[in-house]
Amino acid sequence: MSKVIETLERAQVRDDIPRFKAGDTVRVHFKVIEGQRQRIQVFEGIVLKKQGAGARESFTVRKQSFGVGVERTFPLHSPKIERIEVTQIGDVNRAKLYYLRGKLGKKARIRELRQDGPRGTRAAQPQQEADVAESDVSEETPAETAE
């Protein structure tokens, strides 16, 4: 790709986008322009896929609206997107969640990735041990360290 195109694309890439992946529940605040009026429309749903790279990156969000599945694809770096909020982090093993299209109701749910589970306690444990080791060192007297 030419340098001119790369510099134009780099200028369009936004840096205020949170990190999210397929399976996460997001709330997209999108500017809707109706004639002379502007308003913010919120679209909340599960991210089915992310595709592309750089300024061309896009993502598809699916939600159930009155029993009907609605999907909307957003360009990630669009100036019409006011902000993106990640409301829930999903625990999935796929990059594209097309299988959710055939599911309704409770079967279309995705389990939430738990941050306070066993992984969270293991991550906190070494920090606690380091704090205890520091307090033990400060309590020793010079006579004990000579032995």
| Rg for CA atoms | 24 Å
Cα distance, first to last residue? 68 Å
Number of strands: 5
Q: Any idea what the shape is? A: globular
Helix/strand class: alpha+beta
Can you walk me through this structure?
- Strands 4-3-2-1-5 form a five-stranded antiparallel sheet, with no helix packed on it.
- The protein is globular and about 50 Å long.
- It has helices spanning 3-12, 118-139, 142-146, and strands at residues 25-34, 37-51, 58-65, 68-75, 81-88.
- β3 and β4 form a beta hairpin.
- It is an alpha+beta fold and 147 residues long.
- The chain is built from three helices and five strands; from the N terminus they run αβββββαα.
Attribute tags:
five-stranded antiparallel beta sheet, about 150 residues
List the helices and strands and how they pair.
Blueprint (H helix, E strand, L loop, with lengths): L2 H10 L12 E10 L2 E15 L6 E8 L2 E8 L5 E8 L29 H22 L2 H5 L1
